[in-house]
Amino acid sequence: MKKNRSIKKYTVFWPIVFLSPFTIFFFAFNLFPILYSFYMSFLNWNGYSEKTVVGFDNYKAIFTVDTTFWKSLLNTLRIGIVGFPIAILLGLFFAVLLSNLKKLKNLFQTVNFLPYITTPVAIGMMFVFVFEQHIGVLNKVLTFFGADAINFIGSTTYAPYVISFLIIWKCTGYYMAMYLAGITSISEDLYEAAKIDGANAWHTFSKITVPLLKPVTVFLIITSAIYALQLFDEPNLLFTNQSSSVVGGPGQTCLTLVWNFYNQAFGANPRMGYASALSCVLFLIIVIVSLIGLRLMNGKEKDL
Amino acid sequence: MRRFFSIILTAMLLVGMFTGCGDTAANSANSNDAAANASAGTESTEAGTASDEAVTITYWGWDSNYYAPMFEAYTAEHPNVTFEPTAVEWGDMLTKVQQALASGSELPTIIAMDLTLIENWKDMDVCEDLTTYGLDKSKYVASLADMATTDSGKVIGVVENVCPAGIAYKRDLALQYLGTDDPDELGTMFNSYDAYVSKGAEVYDQSGGTVYLFHSGQAVAEWFYFASDIANQEGNTLNYTSKMTDVFSKLIALRNANAVDTYQNGTPEANATFADDLHIFYPCPDWAISYYILPNDPEGSGNWGVIKAPVSYAHGGTALGITSASVDTQKQAAYDFITWATSTEDGAKVARDEAGYVTAYTEYTYDSSFTKRSDEAFFGGEDISTLFYTDIVSEMAIAPASPWNISIVNVRNDVAQQIMDDKEMTLEGALAIGLDELKQLVTDSSITIE
Questions:
Q1: Cα–Cα distance list, B54 to A24, B51, B330 (Å)
Q2: Residue A124: which CATH number?
Q3: Cβ pair B406:A267 closer than 8 A
Q4: Which H, E and C letters describe chain B, residue by residue?
Q5: B262 → closest Cβ in A21, A151, A245
Q6: B269 and A132 in contact by Cβ < 8 A?
């Protein structure tokens, strides 16, 4: 009897005690907000007025009336499609380069990783100092060579690509670190065997390194897609200033899905209910993208 | 021993976990008290002026140039009052309060409300009716006091100061490129918008394409926007086309004359132009002297002047309100502070001398002996006090606010920047872009945009 109680204490009581902090926090700060947000998506509510249930009206409006949603989705895709593939390719390139380095490997690794841990506010300011028309370093270089200065940040043509460049600059180091970890797990025997068979550097890279890094690549593509769909800090900080802030940047060309959601929820004329519906749609999009990615990963596992 | 440590560790985890909850519960209890007290607000009013009881007033605002010296001077006279200001960026203020309301967290006792967004503040209904504390709004400049009054007559705030605006200029550049730095002569020279266009072209050519009249299209558009007497909204109609035709057509004329540079207004690089020798004029409400000119050109004493704009106008303005979410003693103390700051000679003098703000309390606003500013030496001894508070205040018109002001301002900023970026952009093109954006931003289907 005493033994049973003692076993129960270790199999029931203590697990509950130690799991309860996480469980309580998960329910309070993850599950409850998600469910409450889903509930709010059926309301016409601005955050402080009377709540009115409007059924699926908010969802209908997103897909039939609201052109801003589609515009923000296209902007997000455009910024992401330009930025992330280049960042992933550069990450792979630098990882391969660094993996062959004998000296200063750690130094270059750290330097490349620094942008990833720099705070978004600092990144916003730095990029203004690079791309601004009058004082920007890039324009100083352009004018030095006789070209006209370009208003990169204030132009509808260039502004989205500045965000893409920012992503490349920020994420390349992180991707490089992930690829480096992947490369170190590839057995040296494979490279030696290839060398004996007369494979050159390109063959080794394309036939051994790249295929064996596929799980890392798939992981990076999925997480990049999720990151892209949640882009907010970078464009928001680049186009927000003391007195002439513009929601979505010049011509709203940098209005991302989350920025649009934020503006709907917390702008001067807030629509919490509608914004909640937007967040639910965004949640669905991210779930679909993640499932596709997981399927790709599972497919890979089966292949192996 | 192991068991002892396990128990201690678990207890620490649980205590840590519930500490946050405990605070929230306490705050919630406080809010309930506050709500209960708020509902009994009139009793507090009957209680009369503040006692010597220690009281802490929390404050959210962006303008430390104003609130810091005001708090210091007030606490010197009222040592029982302690202020706890929280600096909130101008653009974040409304959002911060909305988030506090939606999440049920605490609001401050005093809140600073930008007049541009005053209709949104009215909609939020977080402020006390100051007439229940005994405020006589007829003693304040009527057009400003009316802005902070709801349709039902509730006065949600007291306007800190009148905000007459002129055009500030750099004397050395004016002398070099316009032949004079005398404010009267320059005022005569620039007595129409067309004069800015023709002189702008001359200055640009004369300087070899390096000197502009203005630094930013957005700043110029902001000037035209505030100077226009067309209301943003009448009934359920937004007068977008008529208002923005007025604004964008003038900006395009100035752009075509190369009178305006392409800086984005309010950015650090744009603010740095206050001290350069490439831009002559800056649209300048009186508060911009302490907010923009002095901090950005501290070495510029004696090199600045101010002239009247072709149309006298007001720009900006802030109202101080008391939120319902405090206890009666705090609200009464907050009301005493606000009335001290705006309607007593002591408070109004601190505002004038420390922040360069002239109260909207008419007894002082229209008293030319009172409105004498202490910073005229910075303007080469020019009598800017008479210019701002006699000449401009008596003429300036203030267009009524709309709940959609922020969307309209957003469109104005964006299109102004695009006008400056695309030299080929016509008025029709600019209006069409703005209209498209505004339709996306104005989400109330009962509003018609014309």
A1: 40, 8, 10
A2: 1.10.3720.10
A3: yes
A4: CHHHHHHHHHHHHHHHHHHHHHHHHHHHHHHHHHHHHHHCHHHHHHHCCCCCCCEEEEEEECCHHHHHHHHHHHHHHCCCEEEEEEECCHHHHHHHHHHHHHHCCCCCCEEEEEHHHHHHHHHHCCECCHHHHCCCHHHECHHHHHHCECCCCCECCEECCCCEEEEEEEHHHHHHHHCCCCHHHHHHHCCCHHHHHHHHHHHHHHCCCCCECECEHHHHHHHHHHHCCCCCEECCEECHHHHHHHHHHHHHHHHHCCCECECCCCCHHHHHHHHCCCECEEEEECHHHHHHHHHHCCCCCCCEEEECCCCCEECCCEEEEEECCCCHHHHHHHHHHHHHHHHCHHHHHHHHHHHCCCCCEHHHHCCCCCCCCCCHHHHCCCCHHHHHHHHHCCCCECCCCCCCHHHHHHHHHHHHHHHHHCCCCCHHHHHHHHHHHHHHHCCCCCCEEC
A5: A151
A6: yes
- A72-127 tens-digit pLDDT: 999 999 999 999 999 999 999 999 999 888 888 888 888 888 898 888 888 888 88
Cβ–Cβ gap A246/B6 under 8 Å? no
DSSP single-letter state for residue A46: -
> What single-letter DSSP state applies at residue A102?
S
Q: Is A9 a domain residue?
A: no
Radius of gyration of chain B (CA): 25
ipTM score of the complex? 0.81
pLDDT, mean of residues A19-39: 93
CA B280 to chain centre: 24
Give the gap in angstroms from C-alpha B194 to the nearest C-alpha of chain A. Answer: 25
pLDDT tens column, A134-163: 889 999 999 999 998 998 988 899 999 999
- Reading the block at residue B69, the tokens are 């010296």
Distance from CA of B13 to the nearest CA of A (A): 8
- Look at the domain B164-314+390-449 and name its fold: D-Maltodextrin-Binding Protein; domain 2 (3.40.190)
| Number of Cβ atoms within 10 Å of the Cβ of A291 | 11
> Which residues in chain A touch residue B90, judged by CB atoms under 8 angstroms apart?
242-243
In B, residues 225-284, which contact A (CB 8 Å cutoff)? 261-269, 271-272
Chain segment B409-419, per-residue pLDDT in tens: 999 999 999 99
Confidence tier at B48 by pLDDT (50, 70, 90): very low
Rounded to the nearest angstrom, the minimum Cα separation between B426 and chain A is 16
What domain range includes position A126? 57-303
Instruction: Compare all CA atoms of chain A with the CA of B101 and give the residue at the minimum distance.
Output: A48
Asked whether residue A239 is domain-assigned, the answer is yes
Please check whether residue A119 lies inside any domain of the structure.
yes
For chain B, which residues make up each domain, given as ranges? 37-162+317-365, 164-314+390-449
Token readout for B150 is 């709801």
Of B104, B103, B72, B99, the closest CA to residue B85 belongs to: B72
Q: Which class is domain B37-162+317-365?
A: alpha beta
Tell whether A223 is covered by a domain. Answer: yes
Three-state secondary structure readout of B401-430: CCCCHHHHHHHHHHHHHHHHHCCCCCHHHH
| Residue whose C-alpha is closest to residue A98's, from A213, A177, A209 | A177
Calculate how close chain A gets to B76, using CA atoms only, in Å: 32
Domain count, chain A: 1
Q: Do domains B37-162+317-365 and B164-314+390-449 have the same CATH topology?
A: yes
